[in-house]
Amino acid sequence: MPKGMASVTTTFSLMLHFLFLTLCWFNQPALAFTRQEYREALEKSILFFEGQRSGKLPSNQRLTWRGDSALSDGSSYHVDLVGGYYDAGDNVKFGLPMAFTTTLLAWSVIEFGSSMQEQIENARAAIRWSTDYLLKAATSTPDTLYVQVGDPNMDHKCWERPEDMDTPRNVYKVSAQNPGSDVAAETAAALAASSIVFKDSDPTYSSKLLQAAIKVFNFADRYRGSYSDSLSSAVCPFYCSYSGYHDELLWGASWIHKASGISSYIEYIRSNGHILGADDDGYSFSWDDKRPGTKVLLSKEFLEKNSEEFLLYKAHADNYICSLMSGTPGFQAQYTRGGLLYKGSESNLQYVTSTSFLVLTYAKYLNSNGGVVSCGSSTVTRQSLLTLARTQVDYILGNNPRKMSYMVGFGERYPMHIHHRGSSLPSIHAHSQLVSCNDGFQYLHSGSPNPNLLVGAIVGGPDSTDNFSDDRNNYQQSEPATYINAPFVGALAYFCDQPSTI
């Protein structure tokens, strides 16, 4: 084919794809959800975290079908590791996704807390439940970070309530001898971001979080290595650090700079940025890969101060946005016929919620500083970013081909057979007798709806053809996770404060 003909064909193909996605997006009703409905979804998205709590539950616990659990975590290792969150539908406390969840909850409050209204205290409580645990994990022993409680291989052989757990509660740590820069730097980011959240409401606690963040980051940077290499089968294949640890070091330093204003962290970013991935494009923002989030976060430095050394981060943030926008030279995302961003078959909605949050955050930065997104010779408007994010949020809430909400307890139709032990087994308050490891499998394989509603939980979501199997055994689609919900909190908060059409 002649070179010129190939170029015309490519351009025509992009135009057709853009037209298709435009039809998917704009054929949806303009008034899919009201601000009141977004506020309801926000309340439930935060409430979900109460269902994931480990430890001694407080008197104001609202999901009352849960009970106390794992009250001896860490005791055999002479350390207090009670508290924190179970990551998903199992009973293990994984440090890397828990820290990422915390960072994204904190970032949600930092950017959109003013729109949360009466939910701001619940959002802070959700963050604090995690930071109280991360503080203990980070400060109990010098040059050590406790990064996991529970043997995942043994845990996954059982189907039992967290209140009944009798599987080994092994404790895993990273240290100078067995480094884990990825999980440590993410923990530093979580503590630093959370210190911003509590700066006005609890300055003493905020200061404690920031000091711990600095300590943990120094440990992560001094003893470099991936926790996957140090802990192997304890964390792999569950939460392997596939992207390595460079992205977390740059991410952690960026958050400490934002929280503290200490100039040495800007110097660190200047000196180490190129080594740690400043030059790399990343197109999936997740508990594993922080590159797009870091670029968006640091782009604010350029937009606010017009600092040329941060232009690089703005350019890469633009590349990330361009990858999502059909019709641009950098477009590479995949969307379902119903308009949903599709990244993978396992827990796809984690990418949808994180992308929606990043797009809205970047739109906010651009709007505050008069910036635009550059995609080659063309530009993408802020309006296009808002439309993309709203389409994804509304799809999750029920504006999709199946007319099904993927948030439990929201809307008229939502998943009833989610892959979640505590939700699928009778509550300990209704059935106080022990349900042993193997006895619980009858509930996993039951065709009955879950007896306990894990309100606000967002499941893994539909496949590439917009189909969804409401089946407990299909964990890829039916399992919720804290890191799916965390960025959605911020995205929902944004729309709580916006007119019905944007």
From TrEMBL:
Q: Name one Pfam family in it.
A: Glyco_hydro_9
| UniProt keyword terms in alphabetical order | Carbohydrate metabolism, Cellulose degradation, Glycosidase, Hydrolase, Polysaccharide degradation, Signal
* Secretion signal span: 1-32
* Reactions catalysed, as given in the entry: Endohydrolysis of (1->4)-beta-D-glucosidic linkages in cellulose, lichenin and cereal beta-D-glucans
What GO biological process terms are annotated to this protein in UniProt?
cellulose catabolic process
**Leading EC class:** hydrolase
Provide the Glycoside hydrolase family domain boundaries: 38-492
Entry's InterPro entries?
6-hairpin_glycosidase_sf (IPR008928), 6hp_glycosidase-like_sf (IPR012341), Glyco_hydro_9 (IPR001701), Glyco_hydro_9_Asp/Glu_AS (IPR033126), Glyco_hydro_9_His_AS (IPR018221)
EC number(s) from the headed UniProt entry: 3.2.1.4
Residues the record marks as active site: H419, D470, E479
Q: Which GO terms describe its molecular function?
A: cellulase activity
Among Gene3D superfamilies, the record links this protein to: 1.50.10.10
Q: Which family does it belong to?
A: Belongs to the glycosyl hydrolase 9 (cellulase E) family.
What is the protein's given name?
A: Endoglucanase
Organism expressing this protein natively: Flemingia macrophylla
